[in-house]
Design a protein that fits this description.
With 380 residues, this protein is of the alpha+beta class. It folds into three domains: 4-96 and 201-270, no CATH class; 99-191, Arc Repressor Mutant, subunit A; 281-378, no CATH class. The protein has helices spanning 8-18, 30-41, 55-61, 69-78, 99-107, 121-134, 159-169, 188-191, 203-218, 223-226, 234-246, 294-301, 360-378, and strands spanning 4-6, 44-45, 82-86, 90-94, 173-179, 182-187, 251-255, 263-265, 281-283, 322-327, 330-340, 345-353. It has a four-stranded antiparallel sheet, with helices on one face. The protein has a three-stranded mixed sheet with strand order 1-7-8. A hairpin with a 3-residue loop joins β3 and β4. α1 (8-18) crosses α9 (203-218). The longest helix is centred in the C-terminal third of the chain and has 19 residues, at 360-378. It is globular, with a radius of gyration of 22 Å.
């Protein structure tokens, strides 16, 4: 099949439209908007760094102007429309998609499982017995552990915490509530009130799900972008791409700069080329799905993002926690921000213009968005 050839600008706009960063309030408002956003994106990455608001809240704020942290709490704990699990990292995932993760849980395939080799059956029995008897618990509810040596940098010295984490990745426990980084664990079947667990998806169904998720949230997909940090799944996903090409359900796409990298899209995406609202400014998390795939970002936007939090200060170019600034369909600046919660201020540590940024209108638009971003950072 002949490739569908488009401009790089159109390729970029298609991705922005798929990411819902091209309009002001694509998911509406309230708790329902939070669920709709996670269902559309497929996952929202969780991260522990809180120099500014943590990534999961930040990603949702970027697409929901009236987003409040309580909306995500309600979706997870009360409405139970989202759950936490491993995608390419720990993330919020729609509960409607949970069957695509149950097989991974059962087989112990989630990558973090290898981080808990020292968990004993005694540790397992202890925490399960406690949860069955007392109900949902946090690690702070267990105070009788005999501390052990760490096996690696991210390990805990509390055996019960390791047991809780392993049982979570194995699908025995669910995180029923989160307060900052403090997680509450509950038996998964009891949390979801399942009399019988949903049937796990087959490997073929998971591969199709991964492809569909990418087509929905990325618009234009490559094998690398669909299987981000999931190389073992590439052969099976490639098989389904080829099958859909034969059925004309997806078409090959060529655009400037892509070189030999193959991309595909659903043909209907070209019926009405998307137009980005040029007045929109988004200060994006480095863990935003638009930013996290660095090679793809550089290809589409001509911007090479650097995450420099773990670099020595003298080697940083953009700053400790630099945030790309999207204006219309271009990344025009990178701003290193820090929230001073005690003084109730958003501090600009460093402002770097990139690409074609630094026009007077860019500065004015970014400053206006920074004021809104500050209000979000400091909201109770």
């Amino acid at each position: 099949m002949l490739k569908h050839t488009i401009s790089l600008a159109d390729a970029r706009r298609i991705w922005l439209a798929a990411q819902r960063l091209d309009t002001r309030a694509p998911f509406g408002g309230g708790t329902e908007a939070t669920t709709r956003a996670i269902e559309h994106l497929g996952y929202v990455q969780i991260d522990t760094i809180n120099v500014i608001e943590r990534s999961h809240h930040h990603i949702l704020y970027s697409r929901i102007p009236d987003y409040e942290r309580a909306h995500l709490h309600r979706a997870q704990t009360v409405d139970k429309t989202v759950f936490e699990y491993w995608t390419h990292a720990l993330a919020y995932v729609p509960v409607r998609d949970i069957r695509f993760f149950l097989g991974m849980m059962k087989r112990g395939e989630a990558k973090p499982n290898r981080w808990y080799p020292g968990v004993t059956e005694k540790d397992i029995r202890k925490v399960i017995r406690l949860i069955r008897k007392e109900g949902p618990i946090t690690i702070r509810d267990i105070d009788d552990d005999v501390l052990i040596e760490k096996e690696h940098l991210w390990a805990s010295r509390k055996p019960s915490k390791r047991a809780l984490q392993r049982l979570f990745y194995e699908g025995v426990l669910a995180i029923s509530e989160r307060a900052g980084m403090l997680k509450t664990y509950e038996l998964m079947d009891r949390h979801f009130d399942w009399e019988k667990r949903p049937k796990p998806a087959t490997e073929n169904q998971v591969a199709e799900y991964v492809l569909d998720r990418a087509l929905r949230a990325q618009g234009l997909v490559s094998l690398d972008s669909a299987c981000h940090l999931d190389a073992p799944r590439k052969p099976l996903v490639k098989k389904f791409i080829e099958r859909r090409v034969r059925k004309k359900e997806v078409v090959p796409v060529a655009f400037e700069g892509a070189g030999k990298a193959q991309h595909w899209a659903r043909p209907e995406i070209f019926d009405a080329p998307p137009q980005t609202d040029e007045s929109l400014v988004h200060i994006l998390s480095p863990f935003d799905p638009l930013i996290i795939q660095r090679k793809r970002l550089a290809l589409f936007f001509g911007y090479d993002h650097r995450f420099e939090a773990y670099l020595p200060k003298e080697k940083r170019r953009f700053g400790y926690f630099a945030l790309p600034v999207l204006a219309g369909d271009a990344i025009v600046a990178v701003i290193d921000l820090k929230t001073d919660r005690q003084e109730k201020k958003l501090l600009i540590q460093q402002w770097t213009w990139v690409g074609k940024g630094e026009e007077p209108r860019h500065k004015r638009m970014i400053e206006e968005e920074l004021e809104r971003f500050e209000r979000f950072q400091l909201a109770e």
